[in-house]
């Protein structure tokens, strides 16, 4: 009697507890800022429906403060490229989708920062005047035609709660979808995601409370 | 170790003859080495230690021209190799015959060539005491000896200025006037380190970059991936004898304790493979920046992370510096293979000089291992080392840095950077196995670490040109 095939591994549910950042985060300090060491870390991005990490590799970290949601988006990338016309067929980019109220807010972020911000409600899209703050750390050369190998780029981003129409509080859940597309050398575009679905952002960020004082 | 014992047919030497032979202008000035034999006193009187530096004792043994005085050379006689002083025609006196001759290094000079029977050389094994220790009758500056010196700068051996005391006659001699047995053992921190091993076949593995995506994120160190890779390497049949790695074993800030912790995790995973692993330095073992340059002469100095790499991954293999050569030579002498490991993120002039000399040494196969590829020009050692590599024979340049695998036949270069570090391309984690074929070509197979599927197979001749896959 043939053995039953083992069940196919299911992708992990995209859920993350997001620590509260008690001190101001300096987005220019990047990983030297010790606060990032305490940030919540997603699982590596995967191709839709898959369990193995997508190639090339991406992962994200998150923190929150009363001011906004902080995201660090890591992209391993052998050929860091932007496209002058902001198309998605050749440029490297992250797509950050955050559900707020009845809208989905979308940020298109490339190796040089935010390229596009839009808000969609009920199928209609319009520009989103978000006061996001960001910086990008690059190990490599953007748009280098010599073919020099790059290593990675990391976006450090803060999205103000006010621009999301959200009043944050400990225990609150925020739905987020993160995706990243890249065009490796000698290969077509490849994309990975965390929390993305056809129904919209399905990754759950749970805002952790601030550290509680010691009870005497 | 065998020590040469020399017998000289020259019983005495006229000091004035020496003066004339070496064209010393100032005979008769105040001696610099007091209370010496009259002969040496007169020689010393000419111009102090410099005069003695230019004096070639008879039958001084030598290996290379530099063993002899400036202008002289090391010549081969029937009885061995000995220093010959420079001369113009007819000025050798009792030192031999002035002749145009070729030194052991092929340099043609006019030298006072001793008669073959004038110098004889015998060797005796003095290594274990059973055959009897051979006396080396020259005492170094720090040893008590019979030379006598007065003044504030006297050494224990009775000389000064770093001179050795020759017990026969209690004469002070400069270092270049004494045989090798008198000289101290070369320091362990030697320029141009290499090891040589004899093997029946040439089979080795190549493993690439292994590190977490974010600095100090040790919790996400890819230990399961690298442990699986080393186990797969160990399971290859026929077994591979050794491996080379292309650098980047950690991702940590230079002063954090996480760097050494991650390095230990790597080494623990590596124990799955029983052979020797020769580790190249990556930029992440310096400061993590591709432009970083560590080492005593590098702008980033010796970071704790760099020192940890030296301690755990270089010295453990018997080397001092992160740049060195390992030779694997056929037991039957049919071929030789040199693995030249470059540290492009610890680059300096000394390494540059070493690399040029190293790549000039003939070998059947030459493999150069460097972290960054020829395309990563921002790493300090890439351009200068590549210039040197391009001028010498090369079988294959093995690199990492890009977290992927790719072979460039025209450049004779293979990137193996997929040892667990975040993948930058579409190729999965894996490793490469290299094997020497019966026809002399080297065949390389890149494997997926999980499925053992073959990414690619390619082969090269010893000169790096593509060879057919049977």
Description:
- The complex is a heterodimer of chains A (216) and B (470).
- With 216 residues, chain A is mostly beta strands.
- Chain A has one helix and 13 strands.
- In chain A, strands 1, 5, 6, 7, 8, 11, 12 and 13 form an eight-stranded mixed sheet that branches.
- The model of chain A is unreliable at 84-88 (pLDDT under 50).
- Chain B has 470 residues and is α/β, with parallel strands linked by helices.
- Chain B has helices at 15-21, 38-47, 49-54, 223-235, 258-270, 304-314, 349-359, 382-389; strands at residues 2-8, 73-77, 80-84, 97-102, 108-113, 119-125, 138-139, 164-166, 171-173, 194-199, 203-207, 242-245, 276-279, 324-330, 336-341, 365-369, 396-399, 405-408, 413-416, 430-436, 442-448, 454-460, 466-467.
- In chain B, the strands form six sheets. In chain B, strands 10-14-15-16-17-19-18 form a seven-stranded mixed sheet, covered by helices on one side. A seven-stranded mixed sheet of chain B has the order 13-12-11-20-21-22-23, with helices on one face.
- The model of chain B is unreliable at 1-55, 121-133 and 186-190 (pLDDT under 50).
- The interface between A and B is medium-sized, with 29 and 29 residues.
Give me the secondary-structure topology:
The complex is a heterodimer of chains A (216) and B (470).
Chain A: E1 15-18, E2 40-41, E3 58-64, E4 68-76, E5 93-100, E6 103-110, E7 113-121, E8 124-127, E9 133-139, E10 152-160, H1 161-164, E11 173-182, E12 190-194, E13 203-207
Parallel strand pairs in A: 1-13
Antiparallel strand pairs in A: 2-3, 3-4, 4-10, 5-6, 5-11, 6-7, 7-8, 9-10, 11-12, 11-13
Chain B: E1 2-8, H1 15-21, H2 38-47, H3 49-54, E2 73-77, E3 80-84, E4 97-102, E5 108-113, E6 119-125, E7 138-139, E8 164-166, E9 171-173, E10 194-199, E11 203-207, H4 223-235, E12 242-245, H5 258-270, E13 276-279, H6 304-314, E14 324-330, E15 336-341, H7 349-359, E16 365-369, H8 382-389, E17 396-399, E18 405-408, E19 413-416, E20 430-436, E21 442-448, E22 454-460, E23 466-467
Helix pairs in contact in B: 1-2, 4-5, 5-6, 7-8
